Amino acid sequence: MANNIAKTEKAGLPVSMEDIEKMAGAGFEEATADSFAIPFMQILQKMSDQTDPGHASYIEGGKAGMFANLTTTKIYDGKKGILVIPCHYSRKFVEWVPREKGGGLRGLHSPDSDVVQNANPDPKNPLELLTDEGNLLKDTRYHFVLNVTDGSPEPVIFTMKSSQIKKSRAWMTRMQNLTMARKDGTRFKAPMFSHIWNLTTKQESNDRGSWYGLFIEGEPTVISDMSLFKAAQEFRDMAMAGDAKISGDPNSPDDSQSNSQF
Predict the structure, then answer these.
(1) Can you list the alpha helix ranges (DSSP code H) found in the chain?
(2) Burial of 165 (0-12, 13-18, 19+ CB in 10 A)
(3) CA Rg, the chain, in Å?
(4) CA 146, 147, 153, 155: dihedral to nearest 10 degrees?
(5) Per-residue pLDDT averaged across 168-176, rounded?
(6) Which of 17, 24, 94, 212 could form a disulfide with 201 if both were Cys (CB 3.0 to 4.6 A apart)?
(7) The pLDDT of residue 11
(8) Three-state SS for 253?
(9) What is the mean pLDDT of residues 73-102?
(10) CA 126 remoteness from chain centre
């Protein structure tokens, strides 16, 4: 009986923070960039799987116009918006195999790659390209941002394509034009990750349908928290080094028209 009591008491000893700290980072020794993928932040549409209660990807409470982290399944009110710190930008051409040939993601290519340079305009859509094999090359703009809506930095990626490319260009232009003053009064170009932006969603439409698109509300504010600034810089460095891996695109070009807008 005494031995049983001793074993029970020993098994119930609390783990101290010092014990955990001694093993900081343990278990990830063989993990590489290929072991992780930065979550995609997506604007939900009427036909999104995340808004369909009968679909396996359904997110509880998910509605068209909301922002959704596709990995954590956390959702945010599109009207109220989210607060983000842009950290890095990348443009890729996402190669998709046509559905009639099996479908699926083939790869990502830089704009100056041979695959893109040797591609031809799609007869059905002159704004898109086709490879010699007949695969679609989708012009996609990746925005690496920290979502700081809840106070703590959360790395996510926005993909902007089709009608949203003009939004990407406008946002990049606004960021490019931001300057800050030195002590002597002269000005310098602000780092991309020095400001916090408020992003919201609003409904848009054309002759092909309607969808919710991205909008930037008001002017950005300068980061005042050094820990946030360092976190943004670290995420930017990861993206630049290729450690913040792009895993492709959350939607295929065969998704509904409303989904393909963003």
Answers:
(1) 2-11, 17-22, 114-117, 165-176, 226-241, 257-260
(2) middle
(3) 22
(4) -50
(5) 97
(6) 212
(7) 58
(8) coil
(9) 94
(10) 27
Q: Which residue has the higher pLDDT, 62 or 256?
A: 62
Contact status, residue 220 vs residue 232, Cβ threshold 8 Å: no
Q: Is 202 helix (H, G, I), strand (E, B) or coil?
A: strand
Average pLDDT over residues 100-115: 91
Place of tokens 């005494």: 2
SS3 93: strand
Amino acid occupying residue 167:
K
In a 10 Å sphere around its CB, with 0-12 CB exposed, 13-18 middle and 19+ buried, how is residue 191 labelled? middle
The domains of the chain are located at 38-260
Q: Point out which residues pair with 125 in neighbouring strands.
A: 122
Rounded Cα distance, 190 and 207, in Å: 39
Q: Given CA atoms 216, 178, 144, 117 in this order, what sign does their dihedral have? A: positive
Q: Comparing C-alpha atoms, which of 34, 157, 188 is closest to residue 87?
A: 157
Cβ-contact 145, 84 below 8 angstroms: yes
Closest CA to 199 of 67, 93, 109, 6: 67
> Whose structure tokens read 């049983």?
4
| CB 246 within 8 Å of CB 90 | yes
Q: Which residues, including other chains, have CB under 8 Å from residue 119's CB and lie 6 or more apart? A: 93, 129, 130, 131, 132, 137
pLDDT at res. 79: 96
- SS3 state at 125: strand
Helices (H) and strands (E) in the chain, counts: 6, 13
Q: What is the DSSP letter of 40?
A: B
Could you tell me the maximum CA-CA distance found in the chain, to the nearest angstrom?
83
